[in-house]
Amino acid sequence: MHCFSFLRNIAIYTWTISFNFTPSSGKLHGQSVTRYVVEYQNHHALVQNQTAYFRNLLETHLKSNNIGFNDITPFNEAPSIFSGFSLSVHTPHNPKTIKAASFVKAIFPVLPVARPVFLHTPRVLNTLQVGNPADVFEPHVQVGISRLHKKGYRCKGINIAVIDTGCDCQHPALGKGFGKGFKIAKGYDFVGDAYNGSNLPIPDDNPCTSCALHGTHIMGVLAANENTMGFRGVCPDATMSSYRIFGCEENTNDELVASALLRAYKDGADVFSLSVGAPGGWAGGSIAAVIASRIAKRRAVVVSAGNLGDEGMFFATSPSTGTGAISVGSVQSTALVSYPFTTSLTGSRTFNYFATFTMEPGTFPVYPISSTKDGLDDACTPLPANLPNLSQHIALVRRSETHACTFETQLGHLLKKGTHKILWANNNSFPEYVARDASNGVSVGVVTRDIGTMLREKYFENPGKFSITISKDLAIAQVAAPDSGKVSPFSNYGPMFDLESPQPGVLGVGGNVLSTYPVSEGSFAIASGTSISAPQMAGIAALVISTQGKNINPLEIYTRIASSATPVSNFSETGILESVCHQGAGLVNAWCAAMATTVVSTHSFSLNDTLHFNGTQSFSITNKGKQSVSYTVEHVTAGTALTFSETNVANRWPVPLIPGTADVSFSVYEFVLRPGQTRKLQVKFKAPLGLEEISLPVYSGFVILKSDTECESHTIPYYGVGAALKQRPVLDYGYSYQDNYTLPALDSGLTGLPVEEGHTFTLQGLDVPIVEYRLAFGTPLVLFHIVKGDTVIPTSLLPQQSSQEKAPNPEPHPVTTPPPSPKVSSQDSTANSPQNGRLLKRALNSEKNPLYHPSKPDEFPGRLPNQFRGIPLLGSIKPFEQLQRWKPRHALADAASIAFSGKIYDLSVANYHHAKPITVPDGKYRILVRALRVTGDPREEEDYEAWLSPIFTIRRSNQKP
Description:
The longest helix is centred in the middle third of the chain and has 19 residues, at 530-548. The chain has 15 helices and 55 strands. A hairpin with a 6-residue loop joins strand 29 (513-516) and strand 30 (523-527). It is globular, with a radius of gyration of 29 Å. It has four domains: 32-110, Alpha-Beta Plaits; 124-334 and 483-721, Rossmann fold; 335-480, Glucose Oxidase, domain 1 (3-Layer(bba) Sandwich), CATH 3.50.30; 728-954, no CATH class. By secondary structure, it is of the alpha+beta class. The strands form 13 sheets. Strands 19, 20, 21, 22, 23, 25, 26 and 27 form an eight-stranded mixed β-sheet that branches. The active site is at residues 164, 214, 531. One of its GO terms (biological process) is proteolysis. GO terms for molecular function: serine-type endopeptidase activity.
């Protein structure tokens, strides 16, 4: 199922997605953090009114340290989860100075969160069509929800919180109201309509708004009443709450996500549904992920995995990386919503067109744009002057085979002839949708190539007397989709860099799903994304609670959902199961998740990488039922995903899969589990042999507990990396996405482009040096230090490689190996020395290295040395708490940059947390960039990759040196 894209001329179409995780294209210039969330130690016994007490301590401390501040907001909604404040400081400060206040436990920078949007999803007009019965709504039938509905389970008494853009509470399918006695009974607006992510939010008690396109669709997936479009939500009888964290436009931040989580917890939510986030890849690392992890120990927290599947492996998102959160990927629906039409020359035969809103009803003459049967470029050029006005016709247009002739091109020419209605014949057998914003108000239906060919032939049989009838009274139809049941191309790949979760954990239906939409926008819409599969999974979690009771442990909810899932094949249908790191445990089975009487203790096995291989795993299974259950234990392999290509470019969707079978043995292969019995099993894995480590292969498969009793079989996925993560280069030496030069680069703040060796900066205004870089892989730490201009650096211990695609210029230069290192002086060279060989061996074959975990940010990386490989380090560009830590790899179209203002910080001193800025004098300098490899030790020089910028000069005055 495709949707057309007009964003890139290099593609005719892209898959329909709702980007709730949208990276900014181009250079992401670093911004100084001026807002923080401060967590306090919980001292209920010490202070009765701890909020006022701690606020007084914090304000006194800030004033005594001459830190200007404002907008101190208490985080006291759920003190058992989190106690603290958020505040803004007038200028960037070392957060450690703030943290030095009495009883402060931790401090978190407030980070931006992109708005969840439907880039290609317009409205479906509600024209009182008679839909199919809700019990055969395909996204529900596909995962067993309909069976639970037929048994009467509809989440009555379960409280579900939706944290999103708000909701159109006046929608008839959503209860037409807000407050006690309505379907949407609780909620809060944290921001107001005008909030854009940077201005002051104006909160109020009502989250209802007609501009909540995304949130209204999410709410309908979860809780819509049965309606004329022929569907209902997963939990139509649940008590819903809506927490609005976005204005009508633009973005938000993770402070508001965290606030909404705490408010929903306080309001008694049993299940939390979030379809927001940003690329992360590490457990924790943001206040939203930390709070999601804490709540997930007590309640079910469900988060969308993200819609950047095209970026390939290791692209997990936060806060779905929160420990215990259920991260949800997407599969395509097994049926698509379409609308029927008839023709004047085919009798009563009915055909279907695909549209995100119904075409204008009536009978209209057909006018094929090409005057011949075999024309291939309909409306790719301006239409002839003698062509009639087409306002009363249905224009029959074939999709062009020419990449330069997009639907947008064709539409532009058709509009000049007054076209109001188009039947667009695809050039393949796939059904498609055209978005409302792309159609420019024109009524557009899409037919397959075969139907389009038939219509053209019928016209030429009797030119001028062929018409099509579109009736609003005909029922919508669910038509089988050619990509049904496959993992959606937009669904993110994992795993996490710390390998704590395959990411996603499980799949729901998120591709081409009909749901509610604001009434002012048409009432119903078809949308796609993990934004859609996540609320479906949240509803399934609520159904599990409905059957098992509210005392069920959140871990059991997760394991029930995951272990009852069914693994799916890969999109190319090569017979290999899709990688666990793209599907988790597989497609959820809501019926079995809710009705199983046996429960396993884990949802996945992480085998780690080759340096830290964890080949012996154990788990238990408990029988909570009244009958004995017999089991056989089996191993099923999935594809081994190749993260990088032979040229070291990150493989994009579909990531290639090869056979790569782990050897798996069990402590027992058959057993009977009696009522009330718990049995422990041990699994031993041997990693597959012969994998090419340069491709960073991720092998995976499933441990299957197979039973003949319905719903008592269990699937537990496993995954491991067939290489050492510490060998994977981090810095990208490929071409910049928008410009024809290699990275890293030393740019001018005035031009945003690289400067030549010896360039002079005045440090006035934008005339500052900027390091532009891109990360080809995740890293726990990136350091930027100023060094003297005559500094040289030894060749890196491990090879530096280009890890992104070539520049998108018409005639791009090829991707090459990295540029040669700056000239190495003989006394510094260690490239071929015996010592270098020993260090290399140590780096590749060391004992287990400590993986500094992002959930403990204050412990990492600690006091830093004042030299690197014998090179004196003058100081860090950033203070300790503003170091670049726990960073994900960049998307192809992204880069990052960091500016040097002329001030440095000495992080080698004993009080490095409170290092004062030092102004460097005029002179010649270089910037040393170091990236710590995954699982590397920040104390070991050989665990870093390094790049040294060209020499530049600082001259603050007009005087010559």
